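Researcher: Here's a chain I'd like modeled. Treat it as a single chain, no partners, no ligands.
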Amino acid sequence: MERVARISEIIGASPVSFDEAIRVGFERANRTLRGITGLKVLEQRVSVEDGKIEEYRVRMEIIFVLES
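Model: Modeled as a single isolated chain. Structure tokens:
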């Protein structure tokens, strides 16, 4: 069986943690994209305000198989 995959880049964000930001990004992508086979976290960043971490952000690639 031949398959072709595509990669979309997204950014997930959460005030709680990097893990939560990954989950939020994945769950949102999963509502729109079918055939997700994996993801790759490319970058982690935090937003800081008044000396405190305000938001955790992850940039990730979502890999999914194209339908025939």
